Each structure stands twice: as structure tokens, then as C-alpha cells.
Amino acid sequence: MICPNCQTxxxxxxxxxxxVCPRCTRPFALDPQVHGxxxxxxxxxxxxxxxxxxxRLQVTVTQLWYLARTGNPTWEASAASGRAPWVGxxxxxxxxxxxxxxxxxxRGVRHGSYLWWAVAxxxxxxxxxxxxxxxxxxxxxxxxxxPPLSSFRTMICQRWVxxxxxxxxxxxxxxxxxxxRDGAGGASVALLCPDRAVRVFLAANGIPxxxxxxxxxxxxxxxxxxxxxxxxxxxxxxxxxxxGLRADRRxxxxxxxxxxxxxxxxxxxxxxxxxxxxxxxxxxxDAPERPEWLDRMAAGAPEDAEWLLRGWVxxxxxxxxxxxxxxxxxxxxxxxxxxxxxxxEAAAVGFMSWPTSARPTAEGGN
Length: 366
Hints:
By secondary structure, the chain is an alpha/beta fold. The chain is built from 14 helices and ten strands. The strands form four sheets. The protein has a four-stranded parallel β-sheet, sandwiched between helices. Strands 1-4 form a two-stranded parallel sheet. Strands 2-3 form a two-stranded antiparallel ribbon.
């Protein structure tokens, strides 16, 4: 690895005893041979610079974890295969017994030994066929991120802080952050997001005050009939949340969740797995309990619906922060248009659809 302080190459473990550079005698936080491949100070700083857009944004530890990951192994479910061990043992015992009986019957028969060996060879083939492939139990689908979040938090929140006196510039710990609902009680739009790391990201960057939105963790925190923006994972539970809000509320509900198409066919996207809601597991095209939102998705994007029913999840926390910020700004604007009849009418006649190049350039963050 390269010393993050003096840029000296430290190729051997003996060059990094005690996580101290032998040339500049300054400590460093992470060592790939201790903390895993890719876990070194220089790389983490590069990831932080990209995540914070050069220092413009603040990101959470969990967001940094997803962006600094070195792997995301996934596998599909597999059914049980092969034969049970007792089948081969039973068939083998029967064949051996018959060979013994056959050997007794061939006593005194001319060239009987040759015939016995021929039958023994045939018995061996029958045993191999009956034994079949080794038994493999069924395995559910799954996926995980390398390194685990608990290990990454230890690296950043403990080891990094121990060496450098604080988290990397622009990184906040969502576990120690305060209430994300402060000062947003009278906002004109509610933004519901079950993921605390995302809510902390929005609050830390002043988005609630800038966009006049109130952050909420669940439906019970919503009040009145103000428009609601729902920011959720690409998951069955996320779409269920949107469908439930639309059924219970009179005001507009804008779905700003991560689209399935952005994750399902994207090798660079993070994919995890969870058990889908129980009432969706047996859903069939003609099943009466099939929810309406799933019917619509299955009609327009059957592969997306199947992906969700298999339990796959695309975490919205893994979306690059700059893209996430842009998606939230766009969704809040759509919610305001949906709640304003005059703006809806203007949009219908093209007033709100001027080319982007004709719009004034935003300055000063406005």
C-alpha cells in the first residue's frame, strides 16, 4: 500500500508494523492486510471526495459503506437436487448380495469366473446410475456486501477517529445524529423515507428547509392532507408502502422510490435479498389477493414484478448522493404540481415544459 501521508510505497507487512509509516513515522488508519482488500486511507478519501461532490454535500457512514464496498455477491434460489445417500447404500447392498448368490450358483460352471466378472461390471454400472449425483439441499436466494456494515463502522467510526481525531470531512454518523424532524413542522410537503441514513443525509444538507419539506419515518408521522413524497428501496415492501398511502390519503402521493429497472439489470447496483411480504409469496395472475399495484407492474414490466416477488431489494441508501439529491428535488417539485390545480393546468398547455436550455440558471443554491 501507499502511505497516505508521505506517499511512500509500503509493499510488505513488515513495513507497516503498528500501522505506522517507517519513513514519516505518522500513523494511518486502514491497512488492506488487516481490514480487507481496498480498505486503505487513500482510497477512502477518494470515495469521500466523489460522494460529497468535492465537499459540497455531507454523507452518512452507511452511504459511504455502500460506495466503498469491494464486493456484492448474490445468488439465486436453487431447488434440492441429487439423491439421498441411503439410495446408493441400499442399492449397493442389494447388488453385493446378488453377486454373492451368483458366485455360489456359478461353482463348477466352466468359465464361470469370466461370467461373474461381467455381471459384476454390470452391477457396478447399475450402482453408479442408482446412486446419482450427491444430494444438495435447497438454498434460498441471497446477497451481501463486502465488507459487512459492522466491520466498516468499526473502521471509520473507531479506527479512523482514533488516528485522525474525527470522521472523514463531509461524513456524518447517522446513529449519533439528532432528530431529523426539527424545524419542519409547518412544511408544505411531507417526505416519507423509512431509511434513517437517507433522512439524516437530507437533514444534514439542509434539504428540508431548502425545499420546505418535513421528513417522516413512517405513515403515523404524517398529518393533514399535504402532498407526500415517498422515498423507498426498490423492494416489494416499498411499493406496498406507496400503495397503502394512496389508499388511505386524500392528498397526492408521489412515488420517488428507486426504480426496479435501475437495479435489476445493472451490475454496478447493490442488490440484497429479503423475504417478501407473506401475502405476495403465493400471488398468481388469477389470485384474488393479488394487489392492484402488482397487477399494474406485471402488465407493464413483468420482469420487474417477478424480481420483486423473488425478494430482491435495491437499497436507496446505495444511490450516489448527488443523484439522490437530484431525485428528491424533482420529486418534491412533482408533488407541488400535483397539489396545485393552477400549475396542473399550466403544465397541460405546455407552460411547464419549456426546454431546459431556456430556463434561467440557478444561482446561490436557489
